[in-house]
Amino acid sequence: MAVIVSARVEVKVPFHDCDPMGITWHGNYLRYFELARCELLDKLDYNYRQMEASGYRWPIIDVKIRYPQPTEFEQQLHVYAELIEWEQRLRIRYRVCDAASGRRLVKGETVQVAVNGATGEMCLASPPVLKQRLLPWLDA
Q: What would you measure as the largest C-alpha separation in the chain, in angstroms?
């Protein structure tokens, strides 16, 4: 799938994110994904506060993660979020890479859907406000 827009954040693995074996506990990658996703949404000028103000909530309905290589305490990471689908849902792909070598360590994906804030009903298509925010990238 083609990348529509992407963002990157830097993470230095903190001690409290590691398990007794000294590697990053698997559940913490979701927090790293969230940091990158928030950066991506800010780049689109449609972050969670703006979503809510526009009348929609965007819950995550699916998550996938693969852990080919572990990360460790104090390791510098680059976490990338790439929007790859938007018309019916927000599908975002993630890569966690070692900052020094660029080697990919972890990958994943989330899917979010628009929910009408007033009715609580899931939308079958993304609301027009999302397309408005994406126009600079769709026209490119």
A: 49
